[in-house]
UniProtKB/TrEMBL annotation:
This is MATE family efflux transporter. PANTHER family: MULTIDRUG AND TOXIN EFFLUX PROTEIN MATE FAMILY (PTHR42925), NA+ DRIVEN MULTIDRUG EFFLUX PUMP (PTHR42925:SF2). One of its GO terms (molecular function) is antiporter activity. GO terms for cellular component: plasma membrane. It is a multi-pass membrane protein. It comes from the Bacteria. Keywords: Cell membrane, Membrane, Transmembrane, Transmembrane helix, Transport. Its main location: membrane. The chain crosses the membrane at residues 7-29, 41-63, 84-108, 128-148, 160-181, 187-211, 241-263, 283-302, 314-333, 339-360, 381-402. It is found in: Cell membrane.
């Protein structure tokens, strides 16, 4: 397949969508199965997921920066540079993941207490965080490997691996929760072990695919490679992405602690809504990820006018899909919530948020699409500045003020999230429309066309 066909939005997006959708199904299956243990177990999984998302920022800073640079270098016909960047990103991510594994294993209960997990749920949280968190090095390896592979234009490989991982995980979940197939009935501990086993197998297969992802096969001696200028270039893109992602994830972690202050039912309701909302933006997020790879490749090849127009196509495509999904969720959401829990209070809390979700998702899609476009051309500092500003001066304080102080509860927290998404979406859209990030390339015909359109 030619590079032009390999890096089209649809060819890149559909395998990412299937991979993301399978992850959504994995999360849904997890939540459904864990809900058979107790609503408290669901709350533990929910807040633990936010914790794990927060700590992964440390290695995703390298992996994400490397992903953008890999696509740019391949677009610029510099495959050896792309290969070196990929190797460095995997090595550094695994080392960071190993350190995080040790910390999460040793201090699981202390961390859970800091997150305001109710005292009755601390034993469950201790077990889950220590086991799943103890395997964070696998998460780091998977993230770095799949990001590198995906940015070579091969989005199908990670998709197939995700299919296998999800099937294994769901089967093991069922076995450990219900004691099926002769397995011990380990409850939430079994869910954690299932997560580790499926991730280990996925990491092994991803590693095999990774060594064959470039023109020259990666050998054991290649793993010692380190190129300081390329690493510096990776971090110039990656560290603002890391700060922005950290701001978002830690703000979400704080929001979860606010929700935990409201009570265990509110925490469970938000966890269920997180699972259901994933249905809304899974395809939109896939479009955004594909758009980032496409634009990075076009930008690296010097095709800036095409990159400029591609961002808008991706945004409108994502908006159409996300709004369709949000409407479906609004219509069928109450029935879906009833699948997760029989607690009428939790169902009522979730139903009350379905209308607000209709407002939330378009703003989130604009953010994802245009933010991905800016990331693809390396304009990550602007995203970092606007994200830090909006998340910490708007979303987080207003969530506390509306949700806790004014006692609006989950509705107040959602209102703050909506305001944050639209503010950031407006700022990144305005930035892309200005064309500023495409101008340093000198006054080429492509540059002049972009300037005229902006």
């Amino acid at each position: 397949m030619s590079d032009d066909k390999k890096f089209t939005l649809w060819v890149l997006a559909w395998p990412i969508f299937i991979e993301m959708f399978l992850q959504f199904l994995l999360g849904t299956a997890d939540t459904l199965m864990v809900s058979r243990i107790s609503d408290g177990a669901v709350a533990v999984v929910g807040i633990s997921t936010q914790l794990f998302a927060a700590v992964t920022i440390l290695f995703m800073t390298v992996a994400n920066g490397a992903g953008v640079l890999i696509a740019q270098k391949l677009g610029a016909r510099r495959p050896e540079d792309a290969r070196t960047v990929a190797i460095m990103s995997v090595n550094i991510s695994v080392v960071i993941g190993a350190v995080l594994s040790l910390a999460l294993y040793l201090f699981a209960r202390d961390i859970a207490a800091l997150l305001q997990v109710p005292a009755a749920l601390l034993p469950l949280a201790d077990t889950y965080i220590s086991i799943v968190g103890g395997g964070m090095t696998l998460t780091a390896a998977m993230a770095a490997l799949s990001t590198a592979i995906r940015n070579t234009g091969n989005t199908r490989g990670p998709m197939y691996i995700a299919i296998g991982m999800n099937v294994i995980h769901v089967v093991l979940n069922y076995a450990f929760i219900y004691g099926a197939f002769g397995f011990p009935q380990w409850g939430l501990s079994g869910v954690a072990v299932s997560t580790l086993v499926s991730r280990l197998l996925a990491t092994i297969v991803l590693a095999f695919l990774f060594v064959h992802s470039f023109e020259r096969r990666i050998g054991w001696k290649d793993l010692l490679q380190f190129d300081r200028p390329l690493f510096r270039e990776t971090m110039q893109i990656g560290w603002p992405m890391g700060v922005h992602s950290a701001s978002w994830v830690f703000s979400q972690l704080i929001l979860f602690s606010f929700i935990a202050m409201l009570g265990a039912k509110e925490l469970a309701a938000r966890t269920y809504m997180n699972t259901m909302e994933s249905f809304c933006f899974t395809l939109g997020y896939s479009v955004a990820m594909a758009l980032q790879i496409q634009i990075a490749h076009l930008f690296g090849a010097g095709r800036k006018q095409e990159a400029y127009r591609a961002a808008y196509r991706g945004m409108w495509t994502g908006l159409a899909v996300v709004m369709t999904n949000a409407l479906l969720l609004y219509v069928f959401g109450s029935k879906a919530l009833s699948l997760f829990t029989v607690d009428t209070e939790i169902v009522a809390l979730g139903v009350a948020l379905l209308g607000l979700n209709l407002l939330l998702q378009p703003g989130k899609m604009i953010n994802m699409a245009m933010g991905s476009a800016l990331t693809g051309v390396g304009d990550t500092r602007f995203i970092m500045i606007t994200g830090v500003f909006s998340l910490w001066l708007l979303a987080t304080p207003f969530s506390y003020f509306l949700g806790i102080r004014l006692e609006w509860g989950l509705a107040g927290i959602y209102a703050s999230m909506i305001a944050d998404e639209y503010l950031r979406g407006f700022l990144v859209l305005r930035r892309w429309k200005s064309g500023k990030m495409l101008r340093p390339a000198t006054a080429s015909p492509g540059h002049q066309a972009v300037s005229a359109q902006s």
